[in-house]
Amino acid sequence: MQPTPPFLTKVVQLHETFNVRFGVMLVGPTGGGKSAAAAALRRARTDLREAGHPDPAHQVTHLWAVNPKSVKMGELYGEYNQLTNEWQDGIASSLIRAAVADASPHHHWVLFDGPVDAIWVENMNTVLDDNCMLCLPNGERIKLDAVRMRMLFEVSDLAVASPATVSRCGMVYVPSEDLGWRPFVQSWLDGLPSAHAVGRESDPLAARADGEPPASRTPSRSVSRCMSYARSATMTPMPTIDAEPYSDELEEFVMSLFERFVDPLLEHVRKHCRSAVLSCDINLVTSCARLFEAHTHPRNGLPLPKDNDPLEDHTRVALQYIFAYCAVWGIGGNVDAQSLEAFDAFARQLFDGTANFPAGAGTVFDFRLDPSRNYAFSSWQDLVPAFVYRPQAPYFSILVHTVDTVRVSVALEACLSVSRPALLSGASGVGKSAIVLDLLERLARGGGALGGGGG
Fold first, then answer.
1. Is residue 449 assigned to a domain?
2. Is 76 exposed, middle or buried, given 0-12, 13-18 or 19+ CB atoms closer than 10 A?
3. Which ranges carry the Dynein heavy chain AAA 5 extension domain (predicted)?
4. What's the rounded mean pLDDT across residues 343-355?
5. Residue 222: pLDDT above 70?
6. Distance between CA atoms of residues 388 and 123, nearest Å
7. Which helix (H) or strand (E) holds 196?
8. pLDDT-derived band at 232, boundaries 50, 70, 90
């Protein structure tokens, strides 16, 4: 996180509000920096205590987070087991009980990250008033420490919050405009050499694949196939790349691409397109950056200048095409089918002269990066393999590749190559599971997504 003045202002406001209120609500849209502000303040207090600051208000601070809408009321506050009539503590009650029982001077913040509504938050009213008392359904009352503990709520809005709850809390509004996407991109650029240096030993996919499913659950046949392919695909260690920092000229050039193209693309998507899945600006920019991270990885054969090495002209051209491809998929990949034509026309015009998309039939999504042509665009059709029928293959495991399956497979492989999650969204029966299983099977055999045509 970059220490921008608006962000630091929100951290200070949160600190000051904590000094006068037991409960605080961080209000603002997703991606605005609410979690980052709370984490920064927690770390600052902890660091000041470890540095020996004389103010007793600065103590080692622990943050306990729970999503209240991800569980039932009984799982949140506790309930009686209907079979044994025994009391079972809930997540929130367990966290609060453990914080109260801590005899050290450490401070504890219990964070409720999710919508505030009367279904669950009314039970917190006695906690947020002067009593600082959590009343459980079994009649137990837990007295909270008003000095060492605080309640923190992260919400996008207060549309369904009751006046009784709002009046008991301090408010800190965190608008997304204060942070924007630029601090994220700068932090991402600063860490790009380290991200490119990650090897198999720190690959979370490999760690997951090496483990066994819980004994209490029997995986389905499709899940077993996925885990089998994932284990095989991660058996071969990935080479660890030197984490020597990239040149300042390279970072400035990449940042200039973001500065030039991201805002116009975001504005067009918000004003003239409809999204298939609800998203925020920072999410779209993050997707663009992660794809760029994957396609510029040293294993793809594109040498990036280190330290004071000059940025060659052919590398600049390649980076422009890679960025155009990643911006189209990262920012525009979420638009629905009815918006594709408008987005295609706008993207072609925007990148004209920087990364020219081939004229003719097809949208900007119908072209891939071609490493053999210095990452200029070529058609996905060139990568569609000829169908070979295997008589011994089960019927439902047969996948006939098309342009759509190829480009989705390449995009998935790009995400997996840098250990980033991917979400496939679509109606039932369109081939999501088939594409994933086919990709994992290819990776298990030591190959890639149909030759890795994405770059």
1. no
2. buried
3. 256-382
4. 94
5. no
6. 62
7. helix 192-196
8. low
State the pTM of this model: 0.80
Same domain, 169 and 188: no
C-alpha separations of 335 from 75, 268, 340, 433 in Å: 37, 11, 7, 21
pLDDT digits (tens, 9 = 90+) for 384-405: 888 888 888 777 777 888 888 8
Query: Pick from 133, 156, 178: which residue ends a domain?
Result: 178
Higher pLDDT, 109 or 232: 109
CATH number at residue 119: 3.40.50.300
Structure tokens at 304: 């990036």
Going by pLDDT thresholds of 50, 70 and 90, the confidence category of residue 243 is low
> In this predicted structure, what is the pLDDT of residue 213?
45
Q: Which amino acid is at 8?
A: L
Residues 30 and 102 in one domain: yes
Q: Judge if 246 and 349 occupy the same domain.
A: yes
Q: How confident is the model at residue 218 (pLDDT cuts 50, 70, 90)?
A: very low
In a domain, 197, yes or no: yes
Residues of 322-333 as b/e, b for ≥16 C-beta within 10 angstroms?
A: bbbbbbbbbbbb
210 shares its domain with 307: yes
pLDDT of residue 92: 93
Cα 155 from chain centre = 18
Structure tokens at 148: 């060492």
Dist CA 328 CA 265 (whole Å):
9
Reduced to 3 states (helix: H, G, I; strand: E, B; else coil), residue 337 is helix
- Residue 351: which CATH number? 1.10.472.130
Report the number of distinct structural domains present in the chain.
2
Q: Which domain holds residue 220?
A: 182-444
> Where are the strands (E) in 119-201, listed by range?
133-135, 141-143, 149-155, 170-173
Predicted local confidence at residue 276, as pLDDT: 86
Of 334, 381, 377, give the one whose Cα is nearest residue 356. Answer: 377
**207 part of a folded domain:** yes
* Same domain, residue pair 231 and 131: no
Examine the fold and report which residue of 178, 203, 221 is the final residue of a domain before the chain moves on: 178
- Please check whether residues 161 and 131 belong to one and the same domain: yes
What is the average per-residue pLDDT within 44-48? Answer: 95
Pair 266, 392 in one domain: yes
Range 39-63 average pLDDT: 93
Taking the C-alpha atoms of residue 99 and residue 95, their distance in angstroms, rounded to an integer, is 6
